[in-house]
């Protein structure tokens, strides 16, 4: 998102403005919004849907939703990319769960998501809240961190996580709940 | 929840985080969604987790979307906005050479009228497999009606929303104690209840304002809470939530 801009704040301000204008039914703004964000949102739908055709269909729906709902975005409540990405993730999860199949095997061609715990801090954004969350995640036990990250990036449920990691459901819930509780303590502290 | 291996001595309730992450499903999820409605503090926790976890989106690898998707989206929007294939082709025609240089989707300008018209029909018919193709398709009404059944199977409250005219029709609301009123809410992607209006013992037709119309989308939750006469004084549900249902397209 930030490649074309000298810094993340400028990119965010620009995206906010484009999203606000989209909310006023400005089609040119909507086209620019698509140009700025479609690679990120397609990355999301592709990973969660697990196949290109479904990811395209969901992306289509996501942008129709964005067009209809952009007027409801409130600057200050969520960053524009967070708002957009959340719509994409939720839509993709809805699609995936509507299929009624448990998806527990890794995607064939989904790229690995950089784990900042393994030395990728440099790729991370300037934002303080990002650093804080990553640092707190890194403070968790490996299986707690893995489970929380996998739930976020694959959009899967407790039951699917348990199958994927071949552990009893109760064990998985325990890992995640303990991890989330520690994460909250860390973020609050 | 009767799982013997689950810890019962957790220092904190992380249910809000579980909902925000999407870990829950089925009845467990419905129960927690009701909490979102009934407890503003809990709704705020869900929101807090969503915004904290959202920084992980920064790590999500990008992937170039195939170029034809932009045209599909454009065609769908024209279908919604103008309602006829003729207008769509005209609209695309006007987006021609003069704008191509700053137009992010040059492929669009290359569309012939015929392709655009076919595309529009494809896009409009594809998501509605339940509509027989042979039926005279009401081209001017490409959006379908949304419904939600609130409450249990015995005494559900039906809500029907027509995006074409913005009317939300709700069957007779549930019985409420004296000096109280049933209030209808929508919870969309932001996880926060937004009031749609008050219900009565008679069927009610509501006209949600623009922002809330967008929130009534497939997958959103509608809910009814019992509020003091005049409606919730806080802007969020304050009384018990007596019925919920998920919006679906028909």
Automatic annotation (TrEMBL), chain A:
It comes from the Bacteria. Pfam families: Sigma70_r2, Sigma70_r4_2. This is Sigma-70 family RNA polymerase sigma factor. It comes from Sphingomonas albertensis. PANTHER family: RNA POLYMERASE ECF-TYPE SIGMA FACTO, RNA POLYMERASE SIGMA FACTOR SIGZ. Gene3D superfamilies: 1.10.1740.10, Winged helix-like DNA-binding domain superfamily/Winged helix DNA-binding domain (1.10.10.10). The keyword Transcription applies. The keyword Transcription regulation applies.
